[in-house]
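User: My collaborator sent over this chain with a note saying "see what the structure looks like." That's all I know about it. Can you take a look?
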Amino acid sequence: MIGGMTQVSYGQSGNYINVVGANSSSITLREGASLAAPEVFLVSSTGEIVMEQGASINTLGRGKASYDARDGFVYQVANMLAVSNGLLNVVNAVQAGGAASGGINLGACNSAPCSGQTALYSEGSIVALTDKTLQMGDEVRYGTRHLNLGLASINVGSPEALAAAAAGNRLPAGMTLTQQVLDRLLRGDTQFGAPALETLQLSARDSFNFYGSSALDTYDAVTGKSLLSRLMLSAPAIYGAGSASDVASIHTANLIWLGAETPAVAAIDGGAGSGNGRWISRPNASNSAMATLPSRARPSASIAWRWGLPTSTSVPASASPPTTRAACRSISARGPMIRSRVLPIPAAT
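Assistant: Without extra context I'll predict from the sequence alone. Here is the result:
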């Protein structure tokens, strides 16, 4: 670990790993530099984490991580880049005094001309979690089983809808996600023996926001199969902005929505959370499960949508059956991919 030391807090809700003495300066992995170990962590509390074009982090063939989410450990950090052969479960920590980091920049070209690729390869997980911005250059290549991108907010929509929200100061800081960006994330690189991507986790500390009619699709148009086993959304709230005719849809094999320990932030006036559209989850084309939520859907527990559910299921914002609440503790504290399961969804009241 570069930039701090780990400290474990044991409890019934999980074994939380915090970073103490975190570095406040920026960390830069220069062009041509390479780090190799069973797992590599770059941590900076208020500085920027930079991997220049031509730098690499590779844990392939380096052995197992000492411990991971399978052992009940959860990392609680604000700004971290991690490449590990283990399964990492990470939650966003709020920094004292409202401080913010400098974000994460992968594939930066600080001294032109730049050459080579920015490479991140592991047998388990790659995590880029920040409370600021995440930038990925065109020459970034990665290969792993579980990719986790965590930011303050994740904003989904067409380029035009996102641009209009930004022009009206209704777009919170974070990551903008379009189908083109998703397609790029799904293209994992297996040429050096890295495993194929199985799980993409998109984590938002504040909220996951849809703007207008938008669609996220993980299915391959040629094979008709999803490029992912699991798409995970980790957020305290899913907000939407749009008219009654707008529909935001997700088409994937297994969609898992995780709640969060921190409360959702207030919706922006006139922004996401003020719409009247619908959100539809389509696990597959022949037996689609639809989840229609209000524009301010807040899970009090984790809800997983899998194919085989009733054709149309309406989920109230207060949905929290006892079985779901119990599963929430297991999912959030003990590793989401290992203990996730299909959960009952109550009928609307």
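A starting point for your reply to your collaborator: The longest strand covers residues 199-211.
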